[in-house]
Amino acid sequence: MDRRKFIKSTGWSVMGLAMSGTLLSACNPKNREKTKAAAKIDPNGLKVFWGDIHNHCNITYGHGDMRLAFEAAKQQLDFVAVTPHAMWPDIPGKNDPRLAWVIDYHVGAFKRLREGGYEKYLKMTEEYNQEGKFLTFPSYECHSMEHGDHVVLSYEQNFPLVECTSVEDLKKKLKDKKVFVTPHHMGYEKGYRGYNWDCFTEGDQTPFVEIFSRHGLAESDQGDFNYLHDMGPRSYEGSALCGLERGFKFGFIGSTDQHAGYPGSFSDGRIGVLAKSLNRDDIWEAMKNRHVYCATGDKIYIDFRINDAIMGDVIRGNNRNIYLNVESANYIDYIDLVKNGECIARLNGPMQTIVPAEDTIRAKVKIEFGWNREEEPVRWDGFIDISDGKINVATPCFRGAAYTSPQADKVGHEDETKVNKILNTTDKRVDVEMYSTKNPNTMTPAMQAINLDVTMPKNGKIRVSVNGKEFSYTLAELLAGSKSHFMRGWLSEAVLFNRAAPENAFMIEHVMSDNQPARDTDYYYVRVRQRDGQWAFSTPIWVERV
After folding, report:
1. What average pLDDT is seen over the chain?
2. Ranges assigned E (strand) in 354-467
3. Integer Cα distance of 70 and 72 in angstroms
4. 50 and 270 in contact (C-beta within 8 Å)?
5. Residue range 166-170: average pLDDT?
6. What's 314's DSSP letter?
7. Phi, psi of 35 (to 5 degrees)
8. CA torsion 415→88→196→176, rounded to 10°?
């Protein structure tokens, strides 16, 4: 399509034109009115359910009690798999004294799992499963230098621990089982636990890959969330874009890969699943069909369709009518539409707060609790309430300890997992019990938060009453900017009322078309960035040329 016709037909305005021909664009002001539409996700009544299907506790080499891990997951997830480490067929270091410690703690954990740990794990996993309320799935992890690390997720509760000589051998032995075998932290160097796309098999066994976790982001070898673990830097050859450019079809998911017994730990990675209900069959079928996407932390809702297809689908046609509706949890920074690895359009959120003229409005306000410089956790007891209007949803943003691998100083004397809780909610009040620790460094947050979705008059007040202190602001004041308070003076713990986000800041709906196929099969996906650095990535839709 001619670029002038493309711009005219979509209503997008040109901001700049990259050397490669990528079109960067922003929403035309006349389309601002479209932001009030709610994210419907799908005309067939699909909803988004949130999970974490790859995380660790002290059942093998991690920290935190397994029961408390399930309790933490129940507070903010719809489904979970707590994951034991199970095997490493090509473990290195047998002739290298420098790596002897690697063998010791891995092999010791594998042995403990086989000496009663796995039976205990299966029993507790089944105990916590509640159909329609909170689903649990058994899983275990297989490391591999050659093929990259993988997590096996099972539909069946009574799932046997399969021995293998390699990941490929594991996949063969599980080919008749109802399982997913999912690569993760894919961006490490191939041959050193990064993903080997030569071994990818498209289909029901690996419908998606994990592109984000505490290890970082493997969408490509660039961008936010670089790989900083001692396992090495990020490289292109294991990335999702590398796989897409090789013609493979797979979904995108996030998981925490957290090693502190806190599934769903905020900002460490989550999977969103588009399904009709929180029924085991519905969730499994949606995952099998790639109706999944990746979020780093906030529950960002993406309704992305091309013609009648939703994310994960493969369709045919030269006329591609694209519908996009995003509801974020905070201010949208920008939304990219990616086609064949290139950003073909960009939709920007507002740089400054645009305060609606109406007296009563819908807004989102995140309230965070934490900071200080003490070693011991701070307990927060109290409530958040509003004077007028209604709390539509109170979303917990709870974190566990920031562990991506076992901590030597915790072995033998672990701290008990502090499970953060929303104790009670009404349409006016949220009661909380939370525990925060100091931020371990100036780049790693450890705060706890509640994100309020409210409909209320601008002169209505939002109040925090916690640990014997009270702070309150009108919604109008919070639309003008954030407010913070120390609890006990300078360098003590603090409360932050983030700037309130009106609907025009967190909801964007847009319709466009692309009627010029570039390849026999084009892939399209959406990436959403919030101003606070939280992301979401839709699974692609593939469109074949007719």
Report:
1. 91
2. 360-371, 378-386, 390-397, 421-425, 429-436, 448-457, 461-466
3. 5
4. yes
5. 97
6. E
7. -70, -15
8. -100
For residue 536, give Cα distances in angstroms to 307, 337, 388: 22, 12, 32
- For the chain, how long is the longest CA-to-CA vector? 72
Residue 469 φ/ψ region, left for φ over 0, alpha for ψ in the -120 to 50 degree band, beta for the rest: beta
pLDDT tens, residue by residue, 414-450 = 678 999 999 999 999 999 999 999 999 999 999 999 9
Which amino acid is located at 196 in the chain? N
Look at the chain and count its residues: 546
Residue 385 contacts residue 426 (beta carbons within 8 Å): no
Could you give the CA distance from residue 494 to residue 483 in angstroms, rounded to a whole number? 11
Q: How far apart are CA 452 and CA 500, in angstroms?
A: 10
Query: Is a pLDDT exceeding 90 seen at residue 466?
Result: yes
Domain architecture of the chain: domains with CATH: 45-296 (3.20.20.140), 358-404+417-502 (2.60.40)
Distance of CA 254 to the CA centre of its chain: 5
Q: Which two structure tokens, joined as six digits, stand for 104?
A: 């010791």
The H-or-E segment that residue 521 falls in is strand 521-530
The answer on pLDDT for 19 being more than 80 is no
